Amino acid sequence: MVFDISIFPSHFPTTKTAIPKFPANPKTFILEKCKTTKDLNQVHASLIKTRLLHHPAAAEPLLEAAALLLPDSTIDYAFSIFRKLEHPDASAYNIMIRGFTKEQSPQKSILLFRQMIEQLVRPDPFTYSGILKAISKLGALKEGEQIHAHVLKSMEKFDRSEFVENSLVYMYASCGQLQSARKVFDEMSERSPVAWSSMFSGYVRCGYWLEVVGLFRKMRGMGIYFNETTLISVFKACGRLGDLELGEWIHEHAVANGLMKNDNLITSLVDMYAKCGRLETARRLFDSMPSKDVIAWSAMISGYSHSDQRREALAIFHEMQRANVKPNEVTMISVLSCCGVLGALETGKWVHSYIKRKKLKLTVNLSTALVDFYAKCGCVDIALELFHAAPSKSVWTWTALIQGLASNGRGETALEYFNLMVEENVEPNEVTFIGVLSACNHAGLVAQGCTYLARMSRDFGIEPKVEHFGCVVDMLGRAGLIEDAYSLITKMPLKPNAVIWRTLLASCRLHKKPEIAEEALKQVARLEPTHSGDYILLADAYASAGRLGDAAKVRDEMKKMGVEKKKSPGCSYIEVGGVVHEFLAEDKGHPEVYEAVHEVMERIKRGGYEPDTMRGRAEAVGEGDKEASVAHHSEKLAMAFGIIRTGEGTTVRVYKNLRMCSDCHNAAKVISSVYRREIVVRDRSRFHHFKDGSCSCHDFW
DNA sequence: ATAGGGTTAG
What we know:
By secondary structure, this protein is mainly α.
């Protein structure tokens, strides 16, 4: 390799004995030369050659460039320079401590800090703020408190402790110790906007949105000046709270004070408006940004995703790629979430390969998103593989896996993972228990489900919410224990909502319990009088018990009361060659696949097989005829599916957002064996994979 | 050379 040593002035002596002279400002001089890693290598070589490397004034700017400044900075390279220093001073340590934290190795920052103390190098305020940042990242409260003690002992020696105090506030907040953070904050002699921002970001970090808004109002009351940064935290809180009024008020304030020059502020506004459901406003602001960075794009994508406009979100993602903005880990989390909900397996797989190709960091959340995506698409084994390969896992990761296993019919495995999670001391949360209870539900583990419901508050200190009781009511109902389900609803310490009564109503239909169905309808009609589906459930419950007269009466009553039979629009997703087509009933926007879907619908209708009533019919015709009925039905579907022709090697995935009865799944099994291609049927909560006639969740059915 | 923006589950 050829080094261009001419970048150093030629009067620099290169002999061993000469004492080198520095340029007037060596730091500026060196930093100006180091714009890329290649420059850095050359400067490094020159410094070795000129024997200047051991001089802190020359080595430190080099360190700084390597550890912090260069866009492709590598901490390992910086550390190799650092190790060569004979007596690194505090600034050298500071650079390395900040460098390690920046490179996501805060634990190494702590080790280096220990080494610094051992070497009797006295920390300065910069050291403390640096190490406190590392500790914040780790959430290492004990270490943080030790540093706090250190700081208190040497406090008077620092002429400016404000930096350190801000970092202390931030550290306590990151460790979830909001009271300690607030105590340091309240005891500060002077509070700059930075201090306020630290406190705000602490509340933001812990999700204490109301406290953010409260503190902001207090700040305004005190007439304290706030800047763009302060507002960014407040906007985030407004978004999470859905407090559009305050958000709009601050927006106006920001406009009036000329703060809209700040792109980060605009990005946070985009996010705030999107989270408050004002997609058009968010989009207008987004479009107004002259240059949009990856974060702005990510905010817009997640905005659409959160407003149930996932196809639009993916469209924006494609636009982002056309604009040549490189997606990062966070972008991909939103994109994968969209793919999972849409069942866009091809797109999601592409995202996964992109992640591998570009070596995006498998952060906890990204791993979680991948696990969730594959599980939602029915690829449980890939989800499991990725779960085990995840470099770090959080309660979210575990929850996504448990949920994924449960919804794919692997309830027992889901519970095994829950136990493993507890063994590994990961605290489950409310959502984890939704997964656990739905695992019990799907696997028919009735006794276990009831035990877990009881253990929630007893062993884990989590009070069950209506949703948890709903899971158990559904489980008992499916198992035919309607009386138990009913008594659970009446005895639970929470007010039952319409959903829970409707769940009971549905199981009354399944198990021919018109008496309890009557009571359930009474309750559900009181809570949501206009929901037509409930009357139909009761009518069906009568019909299933042979009380056809009562069934007719309910339908009459429905008409008299003017409850319209509003069919919720059937919605299907079809992914062909990586493009997801979304259909509502009678949606003619996709001529190439519309015909096919329309055919499916029509054939089902002509065959008299309203999806909702198919189970009832199959049971009515009796066991022998059931076979015939399934065969008949399969043929219809097979014909319809056959219409969807794609090129060789393209997977056709048909998702029907309809309640599927087991006949449909049998049908899909037959079709897949006939057509020798993978067919995935998705209903609201489960994915069923059929490949060559075998169903991956066969046990469940 | 302190602080601040985007993300995850039923």
